[in-house]
Amino acid sequence: MCRLLCVRSPNPFAIEAHLTKLAEIARRSKEYQGHGWGCAYLRHGEWTHYKNLAPIWEDNLSRFGETTLLLAHARSAFRDEGIVIENNMPFHDDRHVFIFNGELRGVRLNVEGRIGAEKIFNLVRQLHHGNLQAALERTMTVLNKRTRYIRATNVILADKNAIAVASQFSEDPSYFTMHYRTGAPALIICSEIYPGEPDWTPVANNSILVFE
Fold it and tell me: Which of 36, 57, 127, 212 would bridge with 27, disulfide CB 3.0–4.6 Å?
C-alpha cells in the first residue's frame, strides 16, 4: 500500500528535504512503492500540484523550492493495475487536498471515481459541510457500513488552514500505523517514522486527529 506524507510549518521549509525522506521510505518499503508519485504544496498562498509516473526515488526532488504546507504520496497500485498519471494522488478540488492508502474489499459506493481512492475522495467531498473532522467521521461511518472488509484505510485531508488524519486497520499494524511529530520546526505526519529520528507518536487505530 502507498506511503503518505504531510508537513506543515509556520516558516518556509525546503520541500526537497522531506521528499528525500519519503523517497527513502518508499524505496526500502516491503511493498513496491514505485508506481508513480505526486505532491501538492502551497506557493504564494495557492496550491501547486505535481505528479509523475516514475518512482519518487528516481525523480528530481530539488525542483520544488520552499513551502509552508506539503502533502505527498508514493503509489503502490493495487494488483499493479491502473498505472496512469490520472490515478496518482494527491487528489484535489479548489479547497482540499486528499491522500490515501489502504485496501477495502467488497465496497458498495454510489460515487464516481476511476479507482477506489478517488471514490473515497468524492465521498469525502459529498459529506463535507465545512468541517474536516466531521467529513472524515461521516466518511468512515459510510465505509464501515458499505464495505465487507477493511484491511486498512488511512486518509490525510487538508485545506489551507487545517489537516485531518483518519486511520483504521484490521491487520499488519507495523505497516499501516501512521505516525506524527509535532515538535519544532514542523508538524510531520507520515506512514513511517523518518529513519533515525526520535519523538514520533503513533496515530491510534480507529481514530481521527485534527491539526489546526
Answer: 57
d(CA 150, CA 155): 13
Q: What is the DSSP string of 70-126?
A: EEEEE---GGG---SGGGPSPEE-SS-EEEEEEEEEEE---S--SSHHHHHHHHHHH
Give the cell for residue 34: 514505485
Of 138, 119, 13, nearest to 67 by C-alpha is 13
Residue type, 76: S
Q: Domain tally for the chain?
A: 1
What CATH number did the domain enclosing 66 receive?
3.60.20.10
Tens of pLDDT along the chain (212 residues) come to 899 999 999 999 999 999 999 999 999 999 999 999 999 999 999 999 999 999 999 999 999 999 999 999 999 987 667 789 999 999 999 899 999 999 999 999 999 999 999 999 999 999 998 899 999 999 999 999 999 999 999 999 999 999 999 999 999 999 999 999 998 789 999 999 998 888 999 999 999 999 99
